[in-house]
Each structure stands twice: as C-alpha cells, then as structure tokens.
Write a structure and sequence with these properties.
single chain, about 500 residues, Immunoglobulin-like, 6 helices
C-alpha cells in the first residue's frame, strides 16, 4: 500500500477532488485538461502566457488609530473588477478593493481591532485563521455581517508570532466567497522572531497561491468540487515573475485554494530552507527539496539566490494535483537581476517550544465524505458520521485540558485535512510514526490522505466558548464536514 511520502513524492496526492470521488490524480496533458474544463459547461478562457506580469505585493494596511496601545483598522468588503487574465476584466470579491486582501502586520501583546463593513449582497463572517480569540470574535458561521452592516472584531494577539490569514466563514457561502477573493494575510510577530537575523523588509514577502477557473469572458467560474480550476494564481495574478537580488529572501507561502493541495519545489531541485509552519517558526531550519501545503496551510521558507549568477531565471514548480502540467506545474519565476549585500542569516536554532504537558484526555475523530456515486443527490461531508448542525455541540472540553486527538480519514479515495479554531497543536504521530521535520512545529491545519490516521495534542487554556473544527478543503466543509467543540 502506498504511504503518504510515496504519494507526495510521486506527485499523485491531491486535494483536488471532483464529486465523482477521484482523489489521487497526476498532472494531465493539456488535451485531458480541456476535457475536464468543458465538463463544467463553461468554455474555458485561453491559457495565460507564462511569466509576463510581475508578482504583485499585497498592500500593508495602515491603522486608522494607534491610541492606547491598540491598532485599529477599517476594512470594506466590496465587489471590484480586476485584470487578472491579460486584456480581460474579472469581477471579484475583495477586502478594501484588494485581490487578495491587504496585509495586516501585528505584534504579540498589542491588540488589533478591525471594523469590517459588508457592501456585498451576501452575508459574510470574517475568521482570523490560526488566531486565539474569544468566541464572539472568531467569525462563527452563523454570526454573519448582513449586507450594508458592520461588525467589529477584536484580536488580542496574546499568542506567539505566526503567519495567519483571514477569510470569510459564512456557512454554505464560505467556499464560494473565498474562491471569489475574500481572503488576506495577517502577520503576527514578537521579540523572539524579531531578534533573529532572518531576511526582513522588502526581502520578506507573503505569497498566496491558489487555483481558478475562468470562462471565455474572463469571469471566475464557481462549481463545487470543480476540477477545471487549472490556472494557478500567485498574489492574484497568473504565473508572475519576481525580480530578486542574489541574496536570501524569506517567503510566507499560503495555500489559499479551496481544494487544491500544492507540492512546491525549485525547478533545479536545489534546497529550500523551511523555517516555519502555521503557528510560527520551527524549532530548527529544515532544508528540503519540496514543501507540501494542503488548503489553509502555511509555510515560511528562505531561498538563497546568491548561489545563482545574475541573469538566472528559476521557476517555482508545483508537482502535484489534477491539471495540465504546463499550467498546474508552474507557479512563478524568480529572475536574478543584480547582486546585493546580505546581512541576513538562518540560525541553527530558531525557537524553543515548551514541552507538551501530560495529556488529560483523549478522543477519536473521524472524517468522511460520500464517494463513489454520480447520482443527483449532492454528496455530504461528515465528522464522526454527522453533518454539521450549528446548534449542536459535538465535543465538550474542560478549560485548561490538554487533549490527544486521534483523527482518521475514513475515505478510500478522498483526502481531507483538519483545522482547529482557537488553538495551535502539535502533531505527535502520523500513521504510527513520528512526524517529519515539516510537522515539528505548531500547527492549526493538518493533511490526511485517504486512510491516514494522525495523533495531535492541543491545550485549551486561552478562551472558553464554542469553536469549530472542520475540514479546510472548503468545498468539503461547505458540504457539512464541520463540528463544534465547547470549552467550559
């Protein structure tokens, strides 16, 4: 039987699942991909030319007030029109007219308040993914912002540094709203991170990667479980280039796709230094040939371009998932254009994680989804055999408890992942084995291929209240693969 590492290395594993249940699909030829695209009923847009537009850097949002040690921001959710494909206008959903949304840079110990105004014609609910917040500020699926209404969110930022992101979480709408653009990056820093000599400033860039399906008019096509999302976007544009100096850069990679997983590598096979995951820096740097991200996961990496002569053009590739290899296999291109002084370093030790407390409870969780049929009844997603019900509490947890969860993907063909709100956790085991270096840090989202079992440990000692845990393959959570835990 194939194990997880074999699947990832073979390029077969993907979270891109059609409703037929096909889950482990290699990169396709362009002819096969066109068949997938036309199956949705929308004629596809022409494939964009590779590496013709520069990589945009999302704007950093400026606070409207910093009085009293609190940073206050205003955001407006609205429709906007952007040129994503060359020469075509695409309607998108945005925060502050930015696609993707603007970056918020925050500091541990300094609260942030965000006033969110909804000028869309659908309700929304903004969730800060990976953050520890009170339940009122968590962006619960049923606590929505009505059209033309405003809601204020308070983020206390009591947790350590982490590369977080915010996105819509309105129930049954989150999948389409996020697909159409309602997401952005939230970078939380602290003294531990700031004391390290890692690349900073213009050499520290967020890159959100996702896929999209455009019709021949350049409009985004949304269909649940659509395998024709075969155009990769980096920071909102297809296949950009980034001019870099021959020195080290830090990239905050986010998989903001609904369904698609990514396995990222440099075309020449040279090492990427993986330094952080969902919940901040790893204990030690992890030189690796590739980085795997399921939807919602983040990876903080350093690439040293000083090993390349000026004039080098180097492609960041994706080596997993359904789609044409000439599109899904490309992400962006780095162009080394000049030399530069580089005072940055990658320390041998990045942070010390506190020892895990003795577990106080254990529980088992199962993830599953209807598979194998092509009938007229839409498939449903389940946690412990149940479809999400907003008024039901599925797990009661004692405040202060440190629990070990054994989580199993019961499906034979469909991958899932698991995201816990409120807490960062540690992966203890994957299929009975210790996790590899990529999963040695703090996590809030973790991948499970078909039949896999993981053990994780989380400590619930920050806020009381009701919070979600769910598959972050958003098309699956919209099908009901969510549950509620209550910390009391």
């Amino acid at each position: 039987m194939l194990n997880r590492r074999m699947l990832l290395n073979s390029g077969l594993a993907t979270a891109g699942v059609g409703l037929t249940g096909a889950a482990l699909v290699p990169l396709l030829t362009a002819r096969d991909a066109n068949a997938d695209a036309t199956a949705t009923g929308a004629a596809p847009a022409p494939a964009p030319e590779l590496f013709r537009v520069p990589l945009p850097v999302p704007p950093v949002l400026s606070p409207v007030s910093t009085a009293g040690g609190v940073d206050v921001y205003r955001m407006t959710m609205r429709r906007a029109v952007r040129e994503i494909l060359p020469g075509m206008s695409t309607e998108v959903l945005t925060f502050n007219s930015s696609f993707p949304g603007p970056v918020i840079r925050a500091r541990s110990g300094r609260p942030v308040i965000v006033h969110q105004r909804n000028l869309l014609d659908v309700p929304t609910s903004v969730h800060l993914h990976g953050a520890s917040t009170s339940q009122h500020n968590d962006g619960k699926p049923m606590e929505t912002i009505a059209p033309r209404d405003t809601r204020t969110y308070l983020y206390p930022n009591r947790q350590p540094h982490a590369s977080l992101w915010y996105h819509d979480h309105a129930h049954h709408l989150e999948s389409e709203n996020v697909y159409r653009g309602l997401s952005g990056t939230y970078l939380l820093t602290d003294t531990i991170e700031r004391r390290l000599p890692l690349p900073t400033g213009v050499h520290d860039l967020p890159i959100a990667i996702r896929d999209a399906h455009f019709d021949d008019a350049g409009q985004l096509v949304y269909t649940m479980g659509d395998r024709a999302r075969q155009t990769l976007l980096a920071n909102g544009v297809p296949y950009p280039y980034l001019q870099v100096a021959a020195r080290k850069y830090r990239f905050r990679l986010l998989n903001s796709a609904n369904v698609r997983s990514l396995k990222l590598r440099l075309a020449d096979g040279s090492p990427i230094v993986h330094i952080g995951s969902d919940g901040g820096l790893l204990p030690r740097p992890n030189p690796t040939e590739s980085v795997f991200l399921s939807p919602g996961e983040r990876a903080d990496v350093v690439i040293d371009f000083s090993r390349y002569p000026v004039g080098t053009q180097l492609v960041l590739q994706n080596t997993t998932g359904a789609g044409p290899a000439d599109l899904i296999g490309q992400v962006l291109r780095f162009d080394v254009t000049h030399t530069a002084y580089d005072p940055s370093e990658i320390p041998a030790e990045l942070r010390t994680l506190p020892p895990l407390p003795k577990p106080t409870a254990e529980r088992t969780i199962t993830l599953s989804m209807d598979e194998g049929g092509t009938g007229t009844t839409p498939p449903q997603g389940y946690i412990d055999g149940k479809v999400y019900a907003p008024d039901r509490i599925d797990s009661f947890i004692r405040y202060g408890a440190s629990e070990v969860w054994t989580v199993t993907n019961l499906n034979k063909n469909i991958p899932h992942n698991l995201h816990l709100h409120l807490v960062q956790f540690r992966v203890l085991e994957r299929n009975g084995h210790s996790p590899d270096a990529a999963e040695s840090g703090l996590k809030d989202t973790v991948m499970l291929l078909p039949g896999e079992t993981i053990k994780l440990q989380a400590t619930f000692d920050t806020f009381r209240g009701a919070y979600l845990y769910h598959c972050h393959i958003l098309d699956h959570s919209a099908m009901g693969m969510m549950a509620t835990m209550k910390i009391t």
